[in-house]
TrEMBL record:
Cofactor(s) named in the record: Mg(2+)
Biological process annotations from GO: glycerophospholipid biosynthetic process
EC numbers: 2.5.1.n9
Organism encoding this protein: Staphylococcus shinii
Pathway linked to the protein: Membrane lipid metabolism; glycerophospholipid metabolism
UniProt record similarity statement: Belongs to the GGGP/HepGP synthase family. Group I subfamily.
Gene: pcrB
Protein name: Heptaprenylglyceryl phosphate synthase
GO molecular function: heptaprenylglyceryl phosphate synthase activity; magnesium ion binding
């Protein structure tokens, strides 16, 4: 699992969205550090395993981000499990995890699990609605969540999730300044190199999702941040 510490850039592919073989190949050969497969709606065993097989034809590290029990498929390098700390629903803190362990605990190689402390900050994104996240947070809240994740829960990853919109750099910086061991992931609305660069200078790792499906050339240019952030 230590390999993730070196990751600066991740492309997140949504198994419910379609991508041509040619575009998928360009993403896999882009020089990104890893491909993460995950989404909020319509994530199924079928579409996850279909996409997994296609990405596995390339040599890029491939990880799965868990969103429901039905879509867990063996064959990934690592399994990322979010705990949404600003959700009002215990299901998204540890409820689904409890069910996963009850059903599959005996099969799990815990070395392959990365538990992510999520804080969702875009009130209009699907994950905020689904998890009933309290997104009206101040920088003090973010600092406290970062302490909770870094110093108390001691999680390997804190994920600031703005899915769909470009976030406030100050909020990301508040988290970054409060973390010492935990790796900071930032995801949301990165649509070009400049936005990627601004977030990569604050977060340890940036996640680029939706722009893959809107403008693949712009998405590919975000990988260039790896040259300035080694
Ligand atoms: C979504 O954080 C990722 O979970 C990436 O966000 O799709 O807005 O790039 P975008």
């Amino acid at each position: 699992m230590n390999e993730i510490k070196k990751w600066k850039h991740i492309f997140k592919l949504d198994p419910a969205k379609s991508i041509s073989d040619k575009d998928l190949e360009r993403i896999c050969r882009s020089g990104t550090d890893a491909i993460m497969i995950g989404g909020t709606d319509n994530v199924t065993e079928d579409n996850v395993s279909h996409l997994m097989k296609k990405v596995n034809a390339h040599s890029v590290p491939l990880v799965f981000e868990f969103s429901n029990l039905e879509s867990i498929v063996p064959g990934f390098d690592l399994y990322f499990i979010p705990t949404v700390l600003n959700s009002k629903d215990v299901k998204f803190h540890n409820g689904m995890l409890l069910e996963a362990l009850k059903n599959y605990g005996y099969l799990i190689d815990f070395e392959e699990i990365v538990f992510e402390g999520y804080v969702v900050l875009n009130p209009d994104c699907k994950v905020a609605t689904l998890t009933q996240a309290n997104t009206h947070l101040t920088t003090e809240d973010i600092e406290a969540y970062a302490q909770m994740i870094n110093d108390i829960y001691k999680l390997p990853v804190m994920y600031i999730e703005y899915s769909g919109v470009y976030g406030e750099v100050d909020m990301v910086k508040a988290a970054a300044d409060s973390l010492s061991n935990t790796q900071l992931f930032y995801g949301g609305g990165i649509n070009d190199y400049k936005e990627a660069e601004a977030m990569a200078s604050v977060a340890d790792t940036i996640i680029v999702g939706n722009i893959i499906y809107e403008d693949i050339n712009k998405a590919l240019k975000t990988v260039k941040i790896k040259e300035t952030h080694k």
